[in-house]
Design brief:
223 residues; mainly alpha; 8 helices; 2 strands; 68% helix; globular
Length: 223
């Protein structure tokens, strides 16, 4: 008998995976600290990105120490997930969507939005920031649903229910965020709920990765 994926259980994969525990901590600390020192900032009514906008008190610190670093850690997590769950298409798709969510956050840290993150007459960096933010939040909503698709035959798994619930709720919130946008008096709360849902799922994947992987598949060697 020969194992179809002998490299599936790699030490590298598990080491990379644990970056998913650091990413939400880095982002949460950056948001809280930067928000504390930004005059007049409201976590309820303002976007997270406004902490790294042009003219913000600690623009570069938040952009690189918060958005960029958490995005990079998310990409590393996604790589670890990929190494541990391949070759299942749904699981691989979920890891790729998680990587895209991290990459979008990383890019958003490099290209700041304009002062106030206004959506009209945006500069080129602000346009890239808005696009990257949209990709990050949308990919982060679909990643749990893609994982749930792969777990559909294991509906008894708590991770299946968690992925369906968090992914579904995130999609609704993403629609609200980008459909209504700044017209909402609590836009900051909506965005933070989307981030919280995604990173709750990331932490759950780190802790329950063995439940996702399942037993290895074997095939007969040709004679």
């Amino acid at each position: 008998m020969a194992q179809t994926n002998p490299g599936n259980d790699t030490h590298e994969g598990r080491r990379f995976l644990f970056a998913g525990l650091a990413a939400p901590v880095v982002l949460a600390v950056a948001i809280v600290v930067a928000g504390r020192f930004e005059p007049g900032y409201s976590h309820i009514s303002q976007f997270v990105s406004e902490l790294g906008a042009v003219g913000a008190s600690h623009q570069k610190v938040f952009s690189y120490g918060g958005l960029f670093l958490s995005g990079l850690l998310t990409v590393v997590f996604a790589l670890g997930m990929y190494l541990l769950v391949r070759p299942c298409p749904s699981f691989v798709g979920s890891s790729l969507l998680a990587a895209l969510a991290g990459f979008g956050r990383l890019v958003a840290g490099v290209f700041p939005c304009d002062a106030g993150c206004a959506m009209e007459d945006m500069s080129f960096p602000a346009t890239l920031h808005a696009l990257a933010g949209f990709i990050a939040l949308t990919s982060g909503a679909f990643a749990p649903l893609m994982l749930a698709l792969g777990l559909r035959r294991r509906r008894h798994s708590p991770l299946f229910s968690l992925s369906v619930g968090l992914g579904g709720a995130s999609l609704v919130l993403v629609f609200i965020l980008f459909g209504i946008g700044k017209g909402l008096p609590y836009v900051g709360v909506v965005q933070r709920l989307i981030l919280a849902a995604f990173y709750t799922w990331v932490v759950a994947v780190v802790l329950k990765i063995d439940a996702i992987r399942g037993p290895p598949t074997y095939v007969e060697k040709p004679t």
